Amino acid sequence: MTSPPPPFVPRPRFRRGLGASGAVGAVGGTDAVRTVVADIAVPNTAGALVTAALDVLVHAAVVVDSARIDEWTVAQWDRAHAVNVRAAALLVGAAVPHLVAGRHGAVVLFSSVQAQRGLPGSALYASTKGAIESLTRHLAVELGPRGVRVNAVAPGWVPADGTPRVTRYPRSGRAEEVASVVVFLAADGAAWVNGAVLAVDGGVGVVHPVYASPPETVGWSTRMRRRLRRSPTDAIVARLSRSPRGRRPR
User: Fold this and answer.
1) How much is the pTM?
2) N or C, where is the chain less crowded by C-beta within 10 Å?
3) Number of domains in the chain
């Protein structure tokens, strides 16, 4: 593993990446891992990073900005799209010759459940993920005939350390669960998977709006809210099986 040259001091978000590289090196040997710290928002970075044989490319870098549309700045927009979308496209473009040469190249990009589901204050971030899903499909068609598969994962809520859980499900997602899907898409076992966006969200993307909305917003009584906490499915069935007057239909 090659550490960043002095006087570079890794910032917190870089230290996690360096730790992951160290873990990989512990398994495969330090000679098998090379760590490079770079700003992929800079256009010419992609060409400098991809210079040798390559079988798999995973673009997992992300900028997350939460702001209402009347609050975010042009600088925020440019930065998010530069890292989340443009860098992905440039890295794939730079990697194509190497991936094609290997005959079984794979690209895995990162979308998000927010690309398909609206959330106040997330339009900026979600727009980048919507672009990633479109990019995935088009690149899959373009590069598939050349032996390169392009897929994406769309994680749901996967909190970082210390982030509170905000989901109706018993737990949030784990980074390891998302990583296992990335490994699958990159491996030969997924040789017949191309242009797919795989949701890794615990089912959030298929939840009915009645279930997805907080009980308070759909007129649920205190009694029904208590039942929802105990058994969501039974509570919903009971709610929908009653007449407007609150009586069961005969």
Assistant:
1) 0.74
2) C
3) 2
